[in-house]
Amino acid sequence: MEYQEYKEYREYFKDLIDKKEIKELKESVSELKNVVDIAEIIEDMEDKDMLLVFRMLPKEKSAEVFSYMELNDQLRIVTSITEPELNSIIEELNFDDRIDILEEMPANVVTKVLKNTPASERKLINEFLRYPEDSAGSIMTIEYVNFTEDMTVKEAMEHIKEVGMDKETIYTCYVENEYKMLIGFVSLRTIVISDEDKKIKDIMIEDVVSVNTLDDREEVADAFIKYGYIALPVVDGEHRLCGIITFDDIMDVVEAETTEDFHKMAAINPSEDEYLDQTPWQLSKNRIPWLLILMISATFTGGIINRYNYILVEYMILNTFIPMMTDTGGNSGSQSSTTVIRALATGEIGLSDSVKVMLKEVEVGLICGSILSFVNFLRLIFIAKTPVVIAILVSFTMLITVVLSKFLGATLPMLVKRVNLDPAIMASALITTIIDSVVLLIYFGLASKFLPL
Fold first, then answer.
1. Would you say which domain of life the source belongs to (predicted)?
2. Which domain holds residue 443?
3. Minimal CB count within 10 Å: which of 221, 304, 375, 437?
4. Which tens digits make up the pLDDT trace of 256-314?
5. Rounded to 10 degrees, what is the CA torsion of 202, 208, 212, 213?
6. What is the pTM of this model?
7. Domain count of the chain?
8. CA nearest neighbour of 377 among 398, 363, 362, 405
């Protein structure tokens, strides 16, 4: 459904509410089948109207819609509905969605939910809530199909029919021993085509790729990308099966991590709120710290120019080439840093490849720098009619600038990664500021050596 359609539905529902045509409203809401679209439609409605439309939804569908809503909109619902209604929604949610929502809810709401939860389930929820926020344990679900190794294929099929409706996925089933330790997995396809008298231990795959409950979510995402599974088992320190993470859950993580990296690369403090949900003050608060840092660090550039004023007094023409030098250096560094940061994020390269990466970027810098400096030399001589000595100085500086910028663009993200920081902070904004200072030092340093003063 397109944005315009969402808008049309909102206006239509609003009109029905204003006319108090509740029966028609309920029929219109029930005609909507896709829960994601319903969530999008009602999120931008006023509190009173949103709540009314939400209450028109069937019980099981309202829980699904709730799970797809943004946090601030979920809070709008939670603060407006009755306690029985809240408990009804929470009960209908998948276990992992329930944990995700409770993690973000205020303490009083969590207390209200847990108060009406059975003791055994309350204990399990509390265990999940204690996992670190960015860990595999915080996003796993306990809704998986498990077998024992001595079960027959026939018994396994009966077990799937019995419990499969309430599970996150049935396409991959996990095999545990008597101590709840993960010893293998078997696909639904294998079960369906196998003889019903065969034992699960005879058809299971023992080479299981798993993640630990305390593994970082980014490591889990890397594992999904590497192996292409639709689900991964999560084990504890003793290799006991604690839960699974499904592909749809990890997609949310990938989106969040990618968004965070984009923000860092643009010198913006990451925020989980949607753009339109943030006030101008919130947006400014996320941007101003880095702008201040970059502005203050740019004073080094001014200091360098001031230091070499005596050269500029003699050769005013050198002023005209400063923007070209700094822009080319910054652009060259940004190209390399962006490429390296992306390769680090996808696992194409690691810290052990540092030397290879730096040497490759130096080679790239030599090729790009030679072409740029040659073209620039011809432009200065034949078009700008610049004195030969100045043209040589500028072109030679251009070559060194590009090579050094490529080298720094590759090296700095690797260094940041080595000290366990996010390489994304060494993206275009920060690296351009660093390279500007370096370029000017090279430019004026060469000028002071080769130009008569």
1. Bacteria
2. 298-450
3. 375
4. 777 777 666 666 677 767 766 778 888 788 778 877 877 877 788 888 888 999 999 88
5. -50
6. 0.62
7. 3
8. 398
